[in-house]
């Protein structure tokens, strides 16, 4: 396992930068936070390269626990280029972290539901906000259960059950790393600018996402004593997760 303070720099890859990669030092090992853009070639390559260098004891994914078996199946279903055909950076992470304990840290789960209800009651949210939240959580729960069913069918038959088609970008896995990195940075900047123009404080979306992040922090803390841990999460969660987990130096 690589414990070098300059791990990210030593990989000399334009896709592996402080914008997307953080390291928190812990007594039992290191916690590496990798921000990703779903299905983006630069994110897939970042995850694969860092995991190969770190060889973690624990791999934490921004997936509901019920969805992890499906992404394990995706990781074993490689295309002609040797990468998983489905599941993007999440299945690529599982494939690159052979031997790691793989855990899903995202909602829905009981901790998330308990936190959410407690906060809604304490804040006395409006009925309209509560209804939107229930609808959103219900959709996420159905999706997680569908992933579990898809995993069961995939294991029981000779076919791979795909839940979603891969997202297509104006760059590919065969483009040079610098081009992939530039495209990903531009994409993130565009999305963040759009999100920044929308007021979300106090909305159903903000309640859901803030509670999700608190639960992800709790799950990471549960597993950080198990040695080196790599967490693969959406890039929009990266700063808030780092801040909540922090105090130790970061890379």
Note the total helix count.
Answer: 9
Structurally, how many domains make up the residues?
Answer: 1
Query: Using DSSP, what is the number of strands?
Result: 5
Which class of secondary structure composition applies to the elements? alpha/beta
**Overall helicity:** 40-55%
Proportion of beta-strand residues: 5-15%
Question: Cα-atom Rg, whole angstroms?
Answer: 18 Å
Tertiary shape: globular
Q: Can you summarize the main beta sheet?
A: 5 strands, mixed
Report the end-to-end length measured between terminal Cα atoms: 16 Å
In the sheet with the most strands, the strands line up as 1-2-5-3-4
Indicate the mean pLDDT: 80
Uncertain runs are 1-5, 147-161
Keywords:
5 strands; single chain; disordered N terminus; 251 residues
Give a description of the structure.
α3 (68-75) crosses α6 and α6 (127-156) packs across α8. This protein has helices at 7-10, 41-54, 68-75, 88-96, 110-123, 127-156, 177-196, 204-223, 235-245; strands at residues 21-26, 29-36, 58-61, 101-104, 229-234. It has one domain. Residues 1-5 and 147-161 have low confidence and may be disordered. A five-stranded mixed β-sheet has the order 1-2-5-3-4, sandwiched between helices. By secondary structure, the chain is α/β, with parallel strands linked by helices.
Summarize the helices and strands and which ones pair or pack.
Elements lengths: L6 H4 L10 E6 L2 E8 L4 H14 L3 E4 L6 H8 L12 H9 L4 E4 L5 H14 L3 H30 L20 H20 L7 H20 L5 E6 H11 L6
Parallel strand pairs: 2-5, 3-4, 3-5
Antiparallel strand pairs: 1-2
Helix pairs in contact: 2-4, 3-4, 3-6, 5-8, 6-8, 8-9
């Amino acid at each position: 396992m690589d414990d070098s303070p300059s791990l990210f720099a030593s990989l000399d890859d334009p896709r592996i930068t402080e914008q997307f990669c953080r390291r928190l030092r812990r007594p039992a090992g290191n916690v590496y936070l990798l921000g990703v853009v779903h299905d983006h070639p630069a994110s897939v390559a970042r995850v694969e390269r860092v995991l190969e260098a770190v060889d973690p004891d624990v791999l934490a994914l921004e997936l509901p626990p019920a969805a992890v078996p499906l992404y394990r199946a995706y990781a074993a279903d490689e295309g002609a280029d040797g990468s998983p055909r489905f599941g993007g950076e999440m299945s690529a992470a599982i494939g690159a972290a052979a031997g790691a304990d793989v855990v899903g840290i995202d909602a829905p789960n009981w901790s998330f539901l308990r936190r959410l209800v407690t906060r809604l009651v304490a804040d006395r949210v409006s009925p309209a906000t509560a209804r939107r939240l229930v609808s959103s959580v219900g959709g996420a729960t159905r999706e997680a259960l569908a992933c579990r069913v898809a995993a069961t069918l995939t294991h029981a038959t000779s076919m791979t059950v795909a839940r979603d088609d891969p997202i297509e970008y104006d760059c590919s896995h065969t483009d040079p790393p610098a081009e992939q990195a530039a495209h990903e940075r531009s994409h993130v900047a565009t999305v963040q600018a759009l999100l920044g123009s929308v007021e979300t404080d106090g909305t159903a979306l903000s309640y859901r996402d803030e509670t999700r992040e608190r639960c992800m922090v709790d799950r990471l803390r549960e597993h950080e004593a198990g040695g080196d841990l790599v967490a693969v999460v959406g890039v929009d969660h990266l700063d808030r997760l780092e801040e909540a987990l922090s105090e130790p130096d970061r890379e």
